[in-house]
Design a protein that fits this description.
This protein is globular. It has 20 helices and 13 strands. Helix 11 packs antiparallel against helix 13. It is 55% helix and 14% strand. Strands 3, 4, 5, 6, 7, 10 and 11 form a seven-stranded mixed sheet that branches. It has a two-stranded antiparallel ribbon with strand order 1-2. Strand 12 and strand 13 form a beta hairpin. It has a domain of 230 residues: Butyryl-CoA Dehydrogenase, subunit A, domain 3. The chain is α+β, with helices and mostly antiparallel strands.
């Protein structure tokens, strides 16, 4: 069984669960109705199945390498990138003013999900460009937009983001990279950046780096950071790649997974760059890119989970081992525990995908209407979509190994690659712990209003569902009430340490309740169907986890510090 893009599942979610019809009803996205969405998903699915999925193993076995200062990418990745670029998939959601399709982010999110399941290493390249495109659209000067956006959107050039330094990981404000004015409107950028995904390639005409650095008058910390666009080749008067800039790839990291994606150490030695956004306003501009990337990374986890699930399902359908409940030797899919794992994988993927698409719908609605409540909903769901999506990517990929049994740890089966490739998604673009801290701190600065509005919606649907599926509606309503009580407790805690102590379990509990809500929606839309059966599995067997997570969230910080450092080391 080869990878097949989950087009039917995504279409069902758009049509019946996450409210995509609201997006299509806006003036901004009126042309992207259900029929157009279906056509786009079908075409993207073909690209994933026929072009990208065959590159999955090759990216692992023939990794990117650095030869005489030149990055050589995995065999076939150049053709894969060309197909992505020629299809217009890089600039799906970009402005038509610069050659983009202007489609809803919801559709771009769905396509990123499918591409991630097909070949995560390659999908990371267009994801980086998409984030840079959005940052430039919002913050760059008109001159930079006119020069760079058409080439980034077409895939002629590629984009990256450069935040991390050896001494400045999650603490971005500790960066040491410097920017000196050249006196002609450009700046000389000097410093070293690490963990730069797709920092170079051999299939685009230019690579454009967004680099955080500090101007001479920049104050310490994040408030003194500025953002610069630093291309590999300086554009000539005609806008074509000209003289090489003063930057280079020092080395490629030897990673656990994502071998097809070159992760670069970048060195800038007085490289010419252009300011993006105001001086000392770099973090605001970069967060535009990072928020885009956080939803995208959540989809990387979901897509990886989908690929791992399909791989495990194929194995379970073929592997004969032991006797079935009927006393006959059959394939392992007949065994109860294998069914438990496969059902869990499928139910968790549905939940994570629904959360990500609901987040994308909220972002689109915020852009299309300017409504503050939609924007608050998008902000609330972003850390949940990123953290839960990547957690599920990791958990489902490991469960896929378990379905394979001993063969799961044999590299030739390909099962381990999903686990290795997806592992970093819970770390980059802000670790999942940082996402949880963001959820319980920044996202609760409205005293929980956005969270409470969402909980109200969950309870309203559960109330209506009591008339038709009371055995499913009741546990969802009860779980949402526990979430409401925990959110109220959280808001009362003025000591952020108490909030942070339970941040990760709170986020997980929130996601669990959202899963119940979305599965209930599926059961209502398709009663007496496999989707209803999957909803029953989730609500009966997985939703109860919320109680433990939310109890943990309310425990506060004292217990975490009950052991001193010496006790931990004993």
């Amino acid at each position: 069984m080869t990878y097949r893009a989950p087009v039917p599942d995504i279409k069902f979610l758009l049509d019946h669960v996450v409210g995509y019809d609201q997006v299509a009803a806006t003036d901004r996205f009126a042309e992207a109705d259900a029929d157009v969405a279906a056509a786009i998903l079908t075409e993207a699915g073909k690209l994933c199945d026929e072009v990208m999925a065959p590159l999955q193993r090759n990216g692992d076995l023939d990794p990117a390498r650095l030869e005489n200062g030149v990055v050589r990418t995995s065999k076939g990745f150049d053709q894969g990138w060309a197909a992505i670029a020629e299809g217009g998939w890089v600039g799906m959601a970009a402005s038509p003013d610069y050659g983009g399709m202007g489609l809803p982010l919801t559709l771009a999110t769905a396509v990123n999900d499918m591409m991630s399941g097909a070949c995560l290493s390659l999908q990371l390249a267009p994801l980086m460009s998409q984030g840079q495109i959005e940052a430039l659209e919002h913050h760059a000067s008109d001159a930079l937009k006119v020069l760079y956006l058409p080439k980034l959107i077409s895939g002629e050039w590629a984009g990256t983001m450069n935040l991390t330094e050896p001494q400045a990981g999650s603490d971005v404000g500790a960066l040491a990279s410097k920017a000196e004015p050249n006196g002609d409107g450009t700046f000389a950028i000097t410093g070293q950046k690490i963990f730069i995904s797709w920092g170079d390639n051999d299939f685009t005409g230019n690579v454009c780096h967004l680099v955080l650095a500090r101007l001479p008058d920049g104050v310490p910390g994040t408030k003194g950071i500025s953002l610069f666009l630093v291309p590999k080749y300086l554009p000539d008067d005609a806008g074509n790649p000209g003289k090489a800039n003063s930057l280079k790839v020092v080395s490629l990291e030897h990673k656990l997974g994502l071998h097809g994606s070159p992760t670069c150490v970048m060195q800038y030695d007085g490289a010419t760059g252009w300011l993006v956004g105001p001086e000392h306003g770099g973090m605001a501009a970069m967060f535009t890119m990072m928020n885009n990337a956080r939803l995208g990374v959540g989809c990387q986890g979901i897509g990886s989970a989908e690929g791992a699930y399909q791989h495990a399902l194929s194995f379970a359908l073929e592997r004969k081992q032991g006797k079935t409940s009927q006393g006959e030797t059959g394939t392992i899919i007949e065994h109860a525990d294998v069914r438990r794992m496969l059902m869990t994988m499928k139910a968790e993927i549905f939940t994570a995908r629904a959360i990500a698409l609901a987040c994308a719908v909220a972002i689109d609605m915020g852009h299309a209407t300017g409504d503050a409540e939609w924007k608050a909903r998008a902000a609330l769901l972003t850390p949940i979509a990123k953290a839960f999506g990547t957690d599920i990517g990791n958990e489902v990929s490991y469960m896929g190994l378990q379905v394979h049994g001993g063969m799961g740890v044999i590299e030739e089966t390909g099962a381990a690659q999903y686990a290795r490739d997806v592992r970093v998604t819970a770390i980059y673009e802000g670790t999942n712990g940082i996402q949880a801290m963001d959820l319980v701190a920044r996202k609760m600065m409205d005293d929980g209003e956005a969270a409470m509005r969402l909980i109200d919606e969950i309870q309203d649907q559960a109330e209506r569902a009591r008339a038709t599926v009371p055995d499913l509606a009741e546990p969802v309503w009860n779980a949402s009430e526990t979430l409401r009580e925990t959110t109220e407790w959280l808001i009362e805690q003025r000591d952020l340490t108490d909030r942070f102590a339970g941040a990760v379990p709170y986020l997980r509990g929130f996601a669990r309740v959202l899963g119940g809500h979305f599965h209930l929606s599926a059961a209502l839309a398709a009663p007496d169907s496999p989707r209803s059966a999957l909803a029953r599995f989730y609500i009966t067997r997985l939703l109860p986890d919320h109680a433990g997570h939310l109890a943990h969230a309310r425990a506060g910080a004292d217990g975490l510090y009950a052991l001193g450092i010496d006790d931990l080391a004993a």
